[in-house]
Amino acid sequence: MTEGSSDLELRRRQLKSQQSTLQTRKQNAVCVRRAYKRYGTKSHPYVILDGLNMTVPKGCIYGLLGASGCGKTTLLNCIVGRKRLNSGEIWVLGGKPGSRGSGVPGPRVGYMPQEIALYGEFTIRETLRYFGWLSGKTTQEIETKLEFLVNFLMLPDAERQVKNLSGGQQRRVSFAATLVHEPELLILDEPTVGVDPVLRQNIWNHLVDITKHGKTTVIITTHYIDETRQAHLIGLMRGGYFLAEASPERLISQFNAESLEDVFLKLSVIQNMGKRRRSSVLQTVTDTIPIPAGAVNDAAVLDDEVGEISGEFGDNISISSRTNRRVSIAPEPTAEEIPSELPPDEDTGFRFRDMLKVVSFSHMRVMMWKNFLWMWRNIPIMAFIIGLPVGQTILFCITIGHDPKNVPLSIVNYEIDYPMERCQYKYGCNASHLSCNYFQYIADNYSLDLTYYATEEEARTAVVKGKSWAMLVVPHNFSDSLRSRIELGKDTPAWDLETSKIHVTPDKSNENIATFVTRDLLFGLESYGQAFLKQCGIDPKVFGRPIRFEKPIYGYGQPDFTDFAAPGFILTIIFFMAVALTSGAMLLERNEGILERSLVNGITATEMLFSQVLTQFVVMFGQTTMVLIVAFPIFHLTQNGSWLLLFTLTILGGLCGMCFGFVIACTCDTERSATYLALGSFLPIVMLCGIIWPIQAMSPYLLWITDFLPLTQATESLRCVIARGWGIEDPIVYSGFLSLLLWIFIFLTISLITLKFKKG
Ligand SMILES: Nc1ncnc2c1ncn2[C@@H]1O[C@H](COP(=O)(O)OP(=O)(O)OP(=O)(O)O)[C@@H](O)[C@H]1O
C-alpha cells in the first residue's frame, strides 16, 4: 500500500461515523455529510461540492438557494442517485441512494429536473399516465389526481400535446408529473420559473399543505430567493458548501436583514474575505450586524480542515464546529430506538445476474406502451425509418452489378477505305472482310457502341478526350492473315501472325469498364471465330481456348457482382438502420433528460434497454421482411437456401446493430459524437467485413481483425446460405450465427455496465 493510500485509509477510519450518528442521519429525509464532488480530472479538478453538509428533516420544505452554477442541480442529482459523490455520504429516506432495497431511485422520490424532460408528442393525460404507471399507480388513481392537478396548476385541456404548450405550461406539466404519484420526497429544481405570481403562491401553498402531516418532504431550488420565506429551512449554498442552514425567519432576524437576499449577500461578503482577513472582516460585519452564535456555518468561513473534521458536523441545522453551540432540529434517538442493523450502503458492484433480475413486468409494459405511443405519434418518421432500407435495397438492385451499357469504342479499320459503308456483315466462309463481320457481331451481341474513324490520330483523340473507352486498329490484311493462321496453324508465317491481330489501346482509368470491354472483345472474338469456322465446315473447337468451364456447382455461368454484394449489403443496411434507430431514440431520451427522469422513477437500466430491444425489434422485423421481399422475389437476387436461415440471420444482424446503437448512445454524450462514431464505424465495417471485396484478398494480419468483426462471419454465412444453399450444420453457416450472438452479448454487456456506472 502506498503512503498516500494508507493516509487516506487512516483518515477514512477517523471519519467513520458512530452508530448513533448514523441513526440520526437515517431519521432525516435527506442527510448529506462531507460531500465532495468534482468534475474534470484529478489533475484539473473543478470542485462543485466541497465538504458540504445538509440536513433535511422529514416533513419539511427545504429551500436550496445559491447563485447560478454553484452546484444545486449537481447536489440534487447526487441525492436522487443519478450522480455519485467523489467522497462523503448521502442518506435519503433512511438508505443510501442506489442501494438495494433503499427505494431510491424509485417511486419514493419525485424529481422535477430543470429541463422540461417530457415527451413533446404526448398529451398531458398520457404524460401523467406514464409517470403514474411507472410508480405503480392505477389508471383510476391517476385520473383522479389528473383532474386535481389540471385545476390546481391551471393546465390547459388534458388532451393537448405537450409540444404545443407554452414554456410555462410545459414546466407545470413537468411539475404535475412529479406530483402525480405522491412521493415521500419531492425534489424540485426550479419549479416556479415562468410561472405567474398567483400560481406560484398556489404552488407554495400546496407544498405547505402536503408537508404539514410530516409524510412528504420537499427540497426546492429557486432563483426567487424571497419566495422561500415559506420554506421551513433554507440552505444558502456558495463555493461548494452551505454558508448557513436555518429557518428563513431565523436567518432574517439573526442577520438583522430585510430579506433573505440580504442575508445571502451579507454571508457572501463574509465568505469572500477569506480565511486570512476573516477576523477583521467578521469584525466589520458584526459591528454593523449582530451575528448570533450558531447562525453562520463556520465551515464556510473557516478553513477546510475545520469543515471536514467531524462526522457529527452538520447533524444539526446550524452549528459552530469549534464552539459546539447547536440548535437541534432532528431529535437524537434513544438507545432503544437504534437498531443494530444499518441500512444498506450503495452497492457499486456489478453482477450481470442482478441486472437481468431487475426486470419488472409492469415497468416493461409501461415502457413499451410509451415507445409504441411515441412511434404512433411520429408516423412520418417511422414510415421513413421503415421505408428507407426498402428504398436503399431497390436502389442497390437497380444500380449495382449490372453491365455498362453502350460503351463507346473508336475503330480504325485499314481493311476497308473510309467511310465504312461497305463494312457490313457478309455470311460465308469466303467473306472478304472478317473484321467487319466481327464488329457487326459484337455490336449485335454486346452493349458496345462502335464509331469508325479515318485515322488513328482521330480515334486516339476520342479516347484521350474521354469520348471513347478504347481504340481498335485493324491491320490492312487482317482477314487474309487470320485465314492463313487458322489454315496453316503452326506453319503460319510471322507476318501473318502479326497482322491477324486487332490492336486495342484502352482507357483503363475505370477498372470496371475496362474489364467489361476486355471481356466483351475477347468473348465476342471467340464466339464469332467459332461461328465463322462453322460456316467453313471446320470444327469450331479449333478456335476455342484449351480450357473448358463445366456447369458450375454453385451459382450461374456469369459471375454476378450483385449476388456477391447482396448478403453484405442486406446485413449492413439492416445493421446500420438499427444502429441509427436505437442510438437516435436513446439519445433523444437522454439529452432531453427524460431518461434520467425515468431512471429516478425507478426504471432500471435493464428494463430500459430491454423495452427498447422489444420495441425496435418490431420495427426491425418489418424492415427485414420488406428488404428481403424486395431483394429476392421482386428483384430476383439468387436465393438457393433456406428462407428461415436467411431471415433469422438478417434479424440477428439487426439485433446486433441495435445493441451497437445502445453502446453508442450510452458512451456518447452528444448526438454529434454519436453520429461521428456511427459514421466512423460504417466504412471500416463495410471494408473489413468482406462486403465489397473478398476478405481472401486481404493481408493475413488484417484477417485477424476482420475475422473478429461482427459482420464478417455473418456475411460469409449468409452468402453460403443463399448462394450455396448450405444449412445450419455447416461450420461457416453456424459460425455466422454464433459470431452475431457473441457480439449481441458483448454490446449489451457494455451498455448495461456503462448505464450503471456512468453517473458522472
Ligand atoms: N457533467 C458536467 N461536467 C462538467 N461540469 C459540469 C457538469 N455538470 C455541471 N457542471 C458544472 O458544474 C457547475 C454546477 O452546475 P449545476 O448545474 O449543479 O449548477 P446549479 O447551481 O444548478 O446552476 P443553475 O442554478 O444555473 O441551474 C456549473 O459550473 C456547471 O457548468
Brief write-up:
This protein has 760 residues and is an alpha/beta fold. The protein is built from 28 helices and 15 strands.
Q: Average pLDDT, to the nearest integer?
A: 83
**Number of helical segments with 4 or more residues:** 28
Approximate strand percentage? 5-15%
Secondary structure: helix percent = 40-55%
Bound compounds, each kind once, are:
adenosine-5'-triphosphate
Inertia-based shape: elongated
The assigned structural class equals alpha/beta
For the biggest sheet, the summary is: 6 strands, mixed
* Radius of gyration (Å): 39 Å
Q: Strand sequence of the main sheet, in spatial order? A: 5-6-7-3-8-9
- CA(first)-CA(last) distance: 27 Å
Protein name: ABC transporter G family member 20
GO molecular function: ABC-type transporter activity; ATP binding; ATP hydrolysis activity
Pfam families: ABC2_membrane_3, ABC_tran
Region (Disordered): 1-22
Can you tell me about this structure?
The two termini are 27 Å apart. It is built from 28 helices and 15 strands. The relative contact order is 0.08. The chain has 760 residues and is α/β, with parallel strands linked by helices. It is elongated, with a radius of gyration of 39 Å. Helix content is 52%, strand content 12%. The model is unreliable at 1-5 and 275-348 (pLDDT under 50). Adenosine-5'-triphosphate (ATP) is lined by residues 39, 46, 48, 66, 68-74, 114, 760. Its main location: membrane. Residues 1-22 are annotated as: Disordered.
